[in-house]
Design a protein that fits this description.
heterotrimer, A alpha/beta (303), B alpha+beta (665), C alpha+beta (324), A: 303 residues, alpha/beta, Rossmann fold, Helicase, Ruva Protein, domain 3, five-stranded parallel sheet, two-stranded antiparallel sheet, 12 helices, B: 665 residues, alpha+beta, six-stranded antiparallel sheet, four-stranded antiparallel sheet, 24 helices, 18 strands
């Protein structure tokens, strides 16, 4: 049960700086444990950066932030080869993406070219410049944020690229109480001061342990029913891909482990399902009125 | 090095040791067991108070006490007893000092030796089973030390698996390994002789008939003879001194014996029965066979009266093969010696009988007619067959024939022979067993001590020795059936042995069980206890002409049972899905209480609503949630699944009550 | 004389034995136990039971008791089955080295090994030097176990062949293997507190001069670095960007804090080892406070100035492998 304690420590620590967002914090950690990339969609100033930084610090991972702007070029993200005059050869200068946790801020502000450079790196875990490939550090996570408002000069991520993100979460406004604590405790806990609660080795071993959380046929059936409902039901524009179902399962395993269990229940799947399925079902648009994933879950009986 | 958890080990060792100690105590003296129990109490006290194991001084003191006791025992019981009881004492002392890993192996070594000692003296299946349990417990103790964390159940499973896995190999070794002859002479423990004895008094056979101990078993190769033909000859008594019968062979006159042998004439001709006898230890040299026997398979001699004697007393179960030429006539060239012995009577006494015999002699010229007349007398007059005849005083035969007229087979046989001799016809008494119980399961006869019998043989010039059984005229049931039917409802049969199962053989079930057990015991002694070089070749021969059809039959049955089991398990498996049933019940209870369940909701998602309902129902529902989670999403064995199912139904009941209470509030 | 010879023979034997072992069980960072690298022999207690079995056999033969003979055959078969079980307990187990903690002289070195197995296993012993570990049970999947060692000297520490053995399930047989993980761990020197030097010792050859000398103004330009996102736009070398040299950032020497310097030469009057220990402590302090510092070693070789984990680790390695 060492794993559970480690996870709990990390969660507690992050909860101290990201106040009142226990569920989102847990989802974010769950996403990392399931080896997925995370997309945070929210208004500016909701603590997206704080959350990502706190995650990186608590897990003992190196952290970089890239602010995406419309004029940001792929080379700014992945790095450039510069001619070294002394040695008369090109030298690769790694870009900010060479970090274990990369916060890609306001990803939908950048041009599609830059976006896809990042997304490609996310998928391949390596980048190629001038025919040379450079592997990214492991573990490698991208936490991207995007603004929900349809602003001019933004390039919404196409669905194929949304699929690369395991989860999309929204932080939302804090509750009154949470905000009160936040205001009163200002300065007590600073993100930069957070000490890692585990080593990278421990973190990677947690990631492998996640894969050994037990699942039964019943559970797989439930998951398959969900996925097939999304494909067969006309109410959903987009169906869930096999990548999504794989993602749901590993995220559910991580959720089970975070809850201190060594087996996955239907509740675990329901807990992670909206975060994983919503952006895949809804064609990437924010559908504020009805949650598509809730609708889908109500179509399928867990037992 | 591992230090064993002593009390954990003792859990297994103490019962194992108690078994062997009990055996030694019953065999030798109760002091052994008492000593063990004292040591056990000391050890227990030691463990309770957390003291260290006993110091060397105490151990030596204990050893001295033990040696003194053993020396005392050795004097009165013999060398082997002394050695084995010394081992038993050592085990008790070793228990006291048990502390380290090495001690455990010392204890185990002694334990193994004591198990062997037990097996040496007790060869019955039941003892073998009990001692095997002791061995199993010792193995578990060894496992316990190594696998500290395992539960008792798991340990027992491992140990049983280990023993069962090694059993086929052990049996292979047992059947295939050649037997070595004894390397040196070992001292024997002393044992009481059982069965027929050298001399016969009137009451002897009646006494023997009160015992239900097994005498021997006989397996016929072909069709077995009828019950009434089963006269197992053991001893011939031809000398009567007025109170008891004995054999002329006991006169120990070697030349006489040889002379008698030379005057025998018989041929191995005519029909015969082939059979094997598996004799129980009687500690006597005489053997069991039907007339006229030819024994093979062991070292044995035929005496002049056609009885057979083994080289050594039969000290352990012994198997030998016999061929009996039942139709061969036994001619003997009579001479002085012959008449002297077979017409011998005491100088005086039993005058009345002598007179009657003289009278008969003049009345009948033909011996056959005389014999017939005497036997008719037994049948017609009020002679009575009983296990407990009145005591006879001086002139036994007179008193019996003319006064009491109640007797057992020995009475009839003796009187008959006496009358014959007095009438000048050579005759003798034969002691042996008559009949036997046919075990249809194993297809063999079991002959018990209560089948002991005495009959007569008369020498007729033309025919040689002819068997006459006067008892057959008094109580024909004895010969055609068995003793218990001859005695009727008198409850005389095995009167001292209230619980002998053979008394209840009219009860079909009891009889089946009894015969079944008897058969298992027979197979056990035939194949294991008494397995020797000769039967070894039989074993391989049997294997060759093995009944493969029978095997196929059993195999298909086994396969059928196996598949039925699989189907049964499959059914059980599918029953797991049924947890939905109690769950649906629970949901309907909740619906009645106003809990609204949206489609697609899990059990846990209803918890907030139940919290609002009542605390009691909330806790019950939480339990139900856990049960569902375990049942559906945890990989559990089907046994646990079934347990969860039954818990679930209980919880649903509780939920019903909780909801009722909630509504009242 | 004889003793000397005996020890020589012993040494020779040991050499041969080791050579044989190296050939039979070559060093690797993962070992999978199979027929080749597992040894099995009856243990002492197993031998005792075997002897007793033989004695009982004699007893059975002499009394011609079939049952006693059957007992001995059963015991013999039991031994054979137990032998297979003992071996099977070892067979197929995989052992791999996973990692070790950072270690300083005087602290325990915790080496973590992972055992991987497809089925449950029984107890194992690992014997190494003074360390003696027992696993009670290994369940499916994997298990971790640690060996704690106490290295006495800084520098490279080589883990010798160690013995892993088991006598489960009955203790009648001893199964063992001698494994070599080809493992060297760099043991850092023992840190020795010296708070008086926390503010730097300066560099040898500059006197104490350089301390505080870096206190330069904010626009003390030092070098051009490649631009990384997140760098202040204020520091972008716009001129170079215009020239088409790409995005570069002007970097300045630390404007607010001076670079701390620690020099071996200036501490060596405490003695060689002690100086190294003190430097170790100082590096650790720097790492904890995440300050920028430079380290001057023997022969005036300078590391840094720099900060961060990686640099500190480099410094510690250098210190650990200083000549003795």
């Amino acid at each position: 049960m060492q794993a559970v304690q480690l996870c709990q420590q990390a969660l507690n620590q992050i909860d101290k700086v990201v106040i009142g967002k226990e569920r989102q914090v847990k989802l974010a950690l769950c996403c990392l444990l399931a080896k997925g990339h995370l997309l945070i969609e929210d208004l500016p100033g909701m603590g997206k950066t704080t959350l990502s930084h706190a995650l990186a610090n608590s897990l003992g991972l190196s952290y970089r932030r890239i602010q995406f702007t419309s004029d940001l070029l792929p080379a700014d993200v992945i790095g450039v080869s510069i001619f070294n005059q002394n040695q008369h050869q090109f030298e690769f200068h790694p870009g900010p993406i060479f970090s274990q946790v990369v916060l890609a801020d306001e990803i939908n502000r950048a041009s599609p070219k830059t976006q896809s450079a990042l997304l490609e790196a996310m998928e391949e875990k390596q980048i190629s410049v001038d025919g040379q490939s450079h592997s990214l550090p492991a573990p490698f996570f991208v936490i991207a944020t995007q603004n929900p408002f349809h602003q001019s000069g933004t390039f919404p991520l196409p669905e194929s690229q949304l699929d690369r993100f395991l989860m999309r979460i929204e932080l939302g406004f804090p509750s009154k109480d949470a905000e009160r604590t936040m205001l009163l405790n200002e300065g007590n806990e600073v993100v930069a001061d957070l000490k890692p609660v585990m080593s990278i080795e421990e973190f990677t071993s947690l990631q492998t342990q996640v894969q050994s959380v037990a699942v039964t046929d019943k559970l797989i059936n439930y998951l398959l029913n969900l996925v097939h409902e999304s494909r067969n039901n006309a109410a959903f524009d987009m169906a869930l891909s096999p990548r999504a179902s794989k993602g749901i399962l590993s995220a559910a395993r991580a959720w089970a482990m975070l809850s201190g269990r060594d087996y996955v229940t239907a509740d675990d799947i329901k807990a992670v399902f909206p975060a994983i399925a919503e952006h895949r079902l809804g064609n990437g648009k924010m559908n504020t009125s009805v949650s598509l994933s809730e609708q889908l879950m109500s179509q399928v009986e867990p037992i | 090095m591992i230090t064993p958890n002593v009390s954990q080990c003792l859990r297994w060792l103490v019962p194992a040791q108690l078994i062997v100690q009990m055996y030694q105590a019953i065999e030798h003296t109760w002091i052994i067991l008492a000593f063990y129990l004292v040591c056990l109490c000391l050890k227990w006290n030691q463990l309770q108070s957390g003291q260290k194991a006993f110091k060397r001084l105490y151990r030596i003191l204990g050893l001295v006490i033990a040696l003194v006791i053993v020396a005392g025992l050795g004097q009165s019981y013999g060398y082997l007893t002394a050695v084995i009881s010394l081992l038993a004492f050592t085990q008790s002392l070793k228990l006291l000092e048990f502390e380290s890993y090495r001690d455990l192996f010392g204890i185990t070594c002694v334990q193994l030796f004591l198990i062997a000692a037990g097996l040496l003296l007790h060869v019955e299946l039941i003892h073998a089973v009990v001692l095997t349990i002791s061995l199993l417990l010792s193995v578990i103790a060894l496992l316990q030390v190594q696998l500290v964390k395992l539960k008792a159940k798991k340990l027992s499973i491992y140990a049983s698996k280990l023993m069962l896995l090694s059993l086929p190999l052990a049996l292979l070794l047992f059947f295939a390994m050649p037997r070595l002859p004894p390397l040196w002479q070992m001292p024997k423990s002393q044992n009481a002789q059982t069965g027929l004895s050298e001399t016969m008094k009137f009451g002897d056979i009646a006494n023997l008939s009160r015992s239900n101990k097994l005498a021997f078993r006989a397996t016929f190769d072909n069709l077995p003879p009828e019950q009434k033909d089963l006269y197992w000859r053991v001893l011939v008594h031809d000398i009567y001194d007025g109170t008891e019968w004995r054999s002329s062979l006991t006169l120990k006159k070697k030349p006489l014996s040889a002379y008698l042998m030379s005057r025998l004439s018989w041929q191995e001709q005519g029909a015969y029965w082939d059979y094997a006898i598996l004799a129980e230890p009687s500690y006597q040299p005489w053997m069991f066979a039907l007339d006229i026997a030819k024994v093979s398979g062991i070292k044995a001699k035929m005496a002049a009266d056609f009885t057979w004697y083994a080289d050594k007393p039969i000290n352990q179960a012994l198997e030998y093969r016999v061929r009996s030429y039942y139709e061969a006539p036994v001619q003997q060239r009579p001479d002085n010696w012959f008449y002297q012995i077979n017409l011998q009577l005491p100088e005086q006494g039993n005058e009345k009988t002598r007179q009657w015999a003289q009278q008969l002699k003049t009345q009948f010229t033909e011996p056959e007619l005389l014999i017939e007349h005497v036997l008719e007398q037994f049948a017609e007059q009020a002679y009575y067959y009983t296990l407990s005849p009145p005591r006879l005083l001086d002139d036994q035969i007179d008193e019996f024939l003319f006064k009491t007229k109640q007797g057992f087979c020995a009475h009839y046989a003796s009187s008959f022979v006496f009358v014959m001799r007095a009438a000048g016809i050579p005759a003798r008494v034969v002691a042996g067993y008559q009949g036997g119980e046919w075990n249809p399961k194993g297809e063999y006869f079991s002959v018990y001590q209560y089948d002991a019998h005495a009959w007569a043989e008369v020498y007729l010039p033309e025919q040689g020795w002819v068997r006459f059984d006067p008892t057959a005229y008094v109580a024909p049931e004895r010969i055609e059936q068995d003793l218990s039917s001859a005695l009727g409802d008198e409850e005389e049969f095995l009167a001292n042995n209230r619980f002998a199962l053979v008394k209840y053989k009219d009860n079909w079930l009891v009889n089946e069980v009894r015969l079944g057990f008897a058969n298992i015991n027979y197979q056990w002694s035939k194949w294991i206890v008494n397995y020797n070089q000769n039967s070894r070749s039989d074993f391989w021969k049997d294997l060759l002409r093995f009944d493969w059809w029978k095997l196929l039959k059993w195999l298909s049955l086994a396969i059928f049972v196996f598949f039925s089991y699989l189907i049964y398990r499959g059914l059980k498996h599918s029953q797991r899905a049924d947890i939905n049933k109690p769950y649906q019940q629970a949901l309907s209870i909740l619906a009645a209480s106003g809990v609204k369940r949206e489609p697609g909701m899990t059990a846990r998602e209803l918890l907030p609503q139940l919290k609002a309902l009542s605390d009691e129902s909330h806790t019950v529902w939480l339990k139900i949630c856990q049960l569902i989670d375990r049942h559906e999403y945890q990989t559990e064995s089907s046994k646990i699944q079934r347990k969860i199912y039954s818990h679930m139904t209980k919880q649903v009941q509780e939920l019903r009550e909780a909801c009722k209470n909630g509504r009242k509030d | 004389m004889v003793k000397k010879k005996a020890s020589k023979v012993k040494a020779q034997y040991k050499k041969l034995h080791n050579a044989w072992l190296d050939k039979r069980i070559p060093a690797a960072n993962q070992i999978s136990f199979d027929l080749k690298n597992v040894f099995i022999l009856p243990s002492r207690s197993g031998g005792a039971i075997l002897a007793i079995t033989f004695a009982i056999y004699i007893l059975g033969t002499n009394y011609a008791s079939n049952l006693v003979l059957l007992l001995t055959y059963w015991l013999a078969a039991l031994m054979i089955v137990a032998m297979h079980w003992s071996f099977y307990n070892f067979y197929g187990l995989k052992l791999a080295y996973t990692n070790s903690s950072e270690v300083f002289v005087g602290e325990p070195l915790k080496l973590t090994f992972k055992a991987m197995t497809q089925r449950d296993r029984w107890q194992f012993h690992v014997t190494h030097l003074k360390g003696d570990v027992t696993w009670e049970e290994i369940n499916k999947e994997h298990a971790l176990f640690n060996i704690d060692l106490y290295p006495q000297q800084r520098g490279e520490f080589k883990l010798d062949r160690f013995r892993i053995e088991s006598s489960a399930p009955l203790g009648l047989f001893k199964v063992w293997s001698l494994v070599d993980f080809d493992l060297t761990v760099l043991v850092y020197p023992e840190p020795m507190p010296c708070p008086q030097y926390l503010h730097g010792t300066g560099l040898q050859g500059d006197g104490l001069g350089k301390k505080g000398q870096n206190k330069a103004s904010a626009d003390d330009f030092s070098e051009l670095k490649s631009y990384q996102k997140g760098d202040s736009l204020k520091h972008v070398a716009w001129k170079q960007l215009a020239q088409g040299k790409g995005w570069l950032t002007k970097s300045f020497s630390e404007p607010y804090e001076s670079t701390l310097c620690f020099s071996y030469g200036l501490l060596s009057h405490h003695g060689h080892e002690q100086a190294i220990s003190q430097l170790t402590w100082l590096v650790l302090q720097m790492r904890q406070t995440n300050k920028k510092f430079a380290l001057q070693l023997m022969n005036n070789q300078v590391l840094g100035p720099d900060k961060g984990d990686e640099f500190c680790r480099a410094c510690l390695s250098k210190l650990a492998s200083m000549p003795k």
